Amino acid sequence: MDQNLQRFIEYVQIDTQSDDTSDSIPSTAKQLNLSRLLLKQLQDLGMKCHLNEFGIVYGYMEGEANLDPIGLNSHVDTALECSGANVKPQIIKNYDGGIISLGHGYSMSPEEFPSLSKQIGSDLVVTSGDTLLGADDKAGIAIIMAVLHYYHDHPEIKHHPICVCFTPDEEIGRGPDHFDAKEFGAKYAFTVDGGDPNEIAYETFNAAHAQILIHGKSIHPGEAKGKLVNAMSVAFAFDAALPPLMRPEFTSDREGFNHLVGIEGNVDLVKMAYIIRNHDKDKLEEQKQTFLDVAKNIERQYPGAKIEVSLGDDYRNMAEIILSHPEVLEKARSAFAKLGIAPISNPVRGGTDGATFSFKGCPTPNLGTGSYNHHGRFEYLSVREFDLMIEIVKEILKA
Question: With a threshold of 0.85, does the pTM exceed it?
């Protein structure tokens, strides 16, 4: 097996799932198992590196002193939606375009997952059907490590100084909380975390959240007439009063959404959690105001109910920063052109550590990894595209 692919296989078998209910930093100690391994591997390459108290690995490889240091970053944790323990990756050789049997009664086909249709002839790494794969973002880590090994093994090839950063807790939105741009040391950087290798992504959502507390009045149902206010009924009315077509299942491209991600409670008290997204920051403010307006209207409809709305901002659209640093995108586009690739740029319907990195002083667009169907048992890696991403990142760093 190719050494670069072997590293990826090694990484995905380390359980690094984060935990959004934990207050520790990082949120799970098991993430440090991979972080410590990466630290050792950077040390073996003779790089200056350290693992700080927040679980972030920083590394530095010397390059041409007259060139700007360029950063690369990926995250060690995996998503919460599906187990990341006991991952058993399967390699499908020379994929023929048919149905792939994963195991545990699960399979995937190009009809259901169209990205598979462009993978005919490529080797694929897939799951065993009972866990996610972890290519998000261990594929990015493996790509970065492959590039570092290449330049270590070929000192005759001149390149930019390379700054490396591996963060925990990206999947729960805390990855960049303790990121230090000065400690990182890059003039600008690229997050290697995504799908299509042809894409240079520099536009994300502006992101906010809403926490809703609905206080009802619990009365014995036999004595309830004219007195009981069921907080759950109020919660259903609240959610129904938000614009129905602004749910994520009805939106695409640059359309924003409001997404109910959690609800719990009883007759007396209900807690609801929403994420709020829009590429346009003014429209995001309008969405936030809608939550306040709906709360007032529902309180009028349900006398005796009390609705508390707590709004907060999470991250901003990194295009605001990156477009003011055109040299960053030009560097990537030039590398793509040298490899005969016409890059595409679509708005990211999500977030990335690079968004916060950008606002902390290090402009950081996003590159792909050749992995797809993230956060679940249908996740897979295209080995052909994984190898291509290694070549793209090498070209970006070349002097």
Answer: yes
